[in-house]
Amino acid sequence: MADPKGFLNHGREVARTRPVEERVKDWNEVYVPGSLLPIISKQAGRCMDCGIPFCHNGCPLGNLIPEWNDYAYREDWQAAQERLHATNNFPEFTGRLCPAPCESACVLGINQPAVTIKNVEVSIIDKAWETGDVAPQIPERLSGKTVAVIGSGPAGLAAAQQLTRAGHTVAVYERADRVGGLLRYGIPEFKMEKRHINRRIEQMRAEGTRFRTGVEIGRDLKATDLKKRYDAVVIAAGATTARDLPVPGRELKGIHQAMEYLPLANKVQEGDYVAPPISAEGKHVVVIGGGDTGADCVGTAHRQGAASVTQLEIMPRPGEERNPIAQPWPTFPMLYKVTSAHEEGGERVYAVSTTHFEGDADGNVQWLHLSEVEFVDGRLTLKPGTERKIPAQLVTLAMGFTGTDRENGLVDQFGLELDARGNIARDADFQTNVPGVFVAGDAGRGQSLIVWAIAEGRSAARGADSFLTGASELPAPIRPTDRALAV
């Protein structure tokens, strides 16, 4: 156990953020560099080393949290990063981006603020990179088998790294011009600087993984031809079909999906543009969708100099504390969350629905009409007499995703079966109905969290390794049917 009295003697402290007026003027990460190390040993010491660590159940990767908390408390960073990497290929991603279901399941969280598991995690891995403890793990021998991984998001990268380390020759196909999937172009720079992706890619290249960017399977290369080239295929193409808003005026200029808007801002940071083709500068911006992607749009609009930012959510505002009846410990509760983007300004409006858009004579969106909603007989219904309009010169739709892309032909060319939710169906080994073709991440699970994507990638890698060699020593942290802790 780290510090037997740690949770009694020390309160919860989290990473400090830079002042709002400073950070909205740049695209660097919002946290004060180096602010965690002075406090992280005491924070790790708050871990109770529970007899049954429910944080393991909250995390689909099965992270060995009490173990690396103990090492972090003792400042044994080498041992800490070894235990961290034992279950997680990319802790610098999850330590920055994951909503931390492990903390919701922390036993200390029953009656005190939970251990800052996410902050401890990112401190360990950042220290490991700083000291050079993160090194390529080159396989001792090659199997002679080849694997194609479609998609370079967290699921694809995790599967590729695991299979490469198992001795297979792996090529990752990415339809964008750079590796990283939504990590690269969907996550703003202020949430995770892309240098973290770049150095992992270099590690993977040193281990032997190959990357093919600008190649979309189904369009640029037929799925059937890919299948002939490789002994196995892992599909990790994500669930990129965005949910739309079919209301009058949707065709007006200035209304965009979040994933049309966010990547352009990231491309500016990559040096592809001087200014983004879609910008919030000087505009009244409305973000439809109250989740993390919506918050990313809010923070991006602030940095682009929006005149105002309003975020709409159709559901009622959640509570600020866990409801012990509806969302008991250790489930992941839906709570009112103030992200760094929300700290920077803007208005959040709950329990409203967009009825239509209004434009000017040139077809540009100018107004968004909305109405309050209420539950009637268990269904959301427009509330009479609450209609109003708000200025909207740029609208981003951040309402989630409905499934994997069907337009590029990948699903049909492989002849893949889909489940009732429109995801690619798979068996207990993550194998599709086509022998040798596996699926990992959102393409098979549906829209989910980065930590689930990495767990899926690791598990699908084991299935593919077993298919290629007859057995596998790779870990499989989850089954395809596993879901987050819920009531």
UniProtKB/TrEMBL annotation:
Pfam families registered for this protein in UniProt: Fer4_20, Pyr_redox_2
Superkingdom field: Bacteria
Pathway: Amino-acid biosynthesis
Residue stretches making up the FAD/NAD(P)-binding domain: 146-319, 364-457
Keywords noted in UniProt: Amino-acid biosynthesis, Glutamate biosynthesis, Oxidoreductase
Residue ranges annotated for the Dihydroprymidine dehydrogenase domain, each copy included: 39-131
Ranges in coiled-coil conformation: none
Membrane-spanning parts: none
NCBIfam families: GOGAT_sm_gam
Record's protein name: Glutamate synthase subunit beta
